[in-house]
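To illustrate the input format used throughout this study, we show a single complete record. The first block contains the structure-token representation of the backbone; no residue identities are included at this stage. The design step must infer an amino acid for every position from geometry alone.
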């Protein structure tokens, strides 16, 4: 039998032979535990040379790692599978009990990164602003963390008795809106 005291370092915990033999005892080497930075670096390695971009990595409490990628022309299932295989090969045993899930950011879901805004210039977006007002309009431009949405609203025009609908550009910050998302339309 291997003497676990020689291969494991339990600095803050006293060695306990009964605990080591208990069926529920697990030793995790903190140097090899998987973390978000490791997964992100590997995803970014795979992304080099691809037109895909990383949207999010979520470590779930249910031992799932969810990786969301996106592409201007949509995400192909084959590419999700390729990224998943790449990560499984690179992470190997570090993946442990985690379930790996690779997929698209999801059409109609709130944007999480600047590249999603850039990919949807000219498309209709729904924005919930910082005051809780929901607006729908065409994404006109993106400049850094700011974006311009062209909306239709009633405007009072001098010489006219009634307000008329006019196109108005409104500037928002990605950091202050509650969400912005692509409006899926069926024509």
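Output of the design step:
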């Amino acid at each position: 039998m291997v003497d676990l005291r020689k291969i494991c370092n339990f600095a803050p915990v006293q060695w306990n032979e009964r605990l080591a033999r208990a069926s529920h005892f697990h030793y995790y080497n903190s140097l090899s535990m998987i973390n978000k930075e490791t997964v992100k670096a590997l995803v970014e390695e795979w992304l080099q040379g691809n037109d895909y971009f990383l949207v999010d990595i979520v470590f779930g409490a249910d031992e799932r790692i969810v990786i969301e990628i996106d592409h201007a022309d949509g995400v192909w299932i084959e590419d999700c599978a390729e990224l998943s295989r790449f990560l499984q090969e690179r992470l190997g045993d570090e993946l442990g009990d985690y379930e790996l899930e690779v997929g698209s950011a999801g059409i109609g879901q709130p944007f999480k990164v600047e590249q999603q805004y850039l990919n949807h210039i000219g498309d209709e977006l729904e924005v919930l602003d910082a005051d809780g007002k929901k607006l729908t309009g065409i994404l006109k431009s993106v400049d850094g963390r700011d974006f311009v949405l062209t909306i239709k609203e009633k405007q009072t025009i001098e010489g006219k008795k009634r307000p008329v609908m006019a196109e108005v550009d409104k500037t928002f910050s990605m950091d202050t809106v509650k969400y912005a998302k692509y409006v899926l339309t069926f024509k």
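Structural context for interpreting the output: The helical segments are 17-21, 36-47, 77-91, 114-119. The radius of gyration is 25 Å.
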